[in-house]
Design a protein that fits this description.
1 helix; about 50% strand; six-stranded antiparallel barrel; about 15% helix; mainly beta; globular; two-stranded antiparallel sheet
């Protein structure tokens, strides 16, 4: 890892310590618990002119090196899920969209994962 990648990783560690949440990333039978930082606030699209259409999208920023389950490095794919507990005690499940991710930095240290809220359940 070069000096710039080390600096990105150090900045990530500080951001994760302040803003990070513990999530479970699942791909098929593989699952891993990791720290993710919400990349942007979830937003609601509401077109009430015809019918109420509501969609909540959420980006997550993770460290690529953390995306390892049972010794297997995972590459985010459409249909994978991220589960996170909300402040209201509800478990939210987000499903990765197409495209599922993009680089989170120029050095390959971080990934920005694109997801959509697909399930909310009371814990």
């Amino acid at each position: 890892m070069n000096a710039v990648s080390q600096a990105v990783a150090a900045a990530w560690a500080a951001q994760a310590a302040v803003c990070g949440v513990t999530v479970t990333y699942s791909q098929g039978t593989n699952a891993v618990s990791l720290t993710a930082v919400p990349g942007r606030p979830a937003y609601v699209t509401d077109d009430s002119t015809i019918a109420r259409l509501q969609a909540v999208e959420q980006d997550w920023i993770i460290q690529r090196a953390d995306l390892v389950a049972s010794g297997i490095a995972l590459t985010p794919a459409e249909g994978d899920t991220i589960a996170a507990a909300g402040d209201d005690g509800q478990k939210r499940t987000y499903t990765l969209m197409d495209p599922p991710y993009r680089p989170g930095d120029a050095f390959g240290v971080l990934l920005r994962i694109h997801s959509k809220l697909t399930q909310v359940e009371t814990e």
